[in-house]
Amino acid sequence: MKNVDKAYELARERYAEIGVDTDAAMAKLAEIPISLHCWQGDDVGGFEGSRELTGGIQVTGNYPGKARTPSELRQDLDLAMNMIPGKQRLNIHAIYAETDGEKVERNQLEPGHFSNWIDWAKQRGIGLDFNGSFFSHPLADAGATLSSADAGIRNFWIEHGMACRRIGAAMGKALGAPAVTNIWIPDGSKDIPVDRLAPRLRLKDSLDRILSEKIDSRHNLDAVECKLFGIGSESYVVGSHEFYMGYAVKNNLLLCLDAGHFHPTEIISDKITSALTFLPEILLHVSRGVRWDSDHVVILNDELYAIAQEIIRHDFCGRVHIGLDYFDASINRVAAWVIGCRAMNKALLSALLEPVAKLRKLECDGDFTSRLAILEELKSMPSGAVWDYYCTKQQVPVGEAWLREVKSYEANVLSKR
Ligand code: RNT
Ligand code: ZN
Fold first, then answer.
1. CA 320 to centroid of ligand 2, rounded, Å
2. Catalytic entry in 43, 48, 129, 258
3. For 32-354, which CATH class?
């Protein structure tokens, strides 16, 4: 890796000239966990059986080699995670329970149904995060779960939410770092409702009941995820941004900001500081919506840079939990994980290579000319050389070398499924 080392030495000097310590940046990056979402590996399928994906989210594509079992999914994750530098976590949905062929209703799920995941995470030395699955289920087919007017349906989902928090806590306890257990529900309506209030009041009551059990925050943290619209809930979403912002602030929960869940010109990077003015911690679902909440694979675009800058410039690493949330079945699914998670890491590294104090001073002094000039010059600084060096130090492939490994896995493993 002679060239990588040489390029890094030069890059280190260049950054030193502008007052940036590249070694410190890499050390910091290595400590920022990113939670990889298990559901990219099987198109949000889970292991309950082959029901269709509902809830107004959609996976397109039929790329061969999808994981069909928990061990296939973990095998795929093992490969993806070995191609990604830095600290990782895994984000699991309730539908990924392992019940030994037995039918276990979602309101009956227990930590034991996730013990293989916990053991696997322990082996890898990573933490887990968790999500209730309030979709792809007959009791979600009417378009309402926690906001349902049907007491039986609503109770079922409340019990599911309670079960999920206990599972999250068991994960956090076993792995020595709290799991973030997220609640996203698809509730809403295709056409214009007459009563926008009653479902929201019911949702509030359901959440109150789910959260009534005291759970040690060293083991589990609760997050709520808002949304603008989904397929089939175009006119009304019960859990809107205002609803959950209010609920999170009032109850001291994490607000989950998903990059695809706002108006197309709205960006979550600008929401981080607002949310953190009123909340101790938040969760991000880093995603990429193309024209709608399409959950495309995350790439290194302007918004990803901006998200990373907001986290790093304010030193919010301890308060922003970074999770990925996308699902693309039109390309190799393992590669999709690697591409998105490497992109997130690259964005964080770029942010860590900014001379923040200097930029802040220019802004305070009102020298907006210099601020803009330097921000533009930073874009062509040799951050790529630092990234390559970081990858070698982290013992993951440099550049597109990871792709060869994924391609050979495709030929030897995925294509045989
Ligand atoms: C849906 C939400 C939610 C899901 C996952 C599967 O729009 O983004 O987070 O994508 O939980
Ligand atoms: Zn999401």
1. 15
2. 258
3. alpha beta
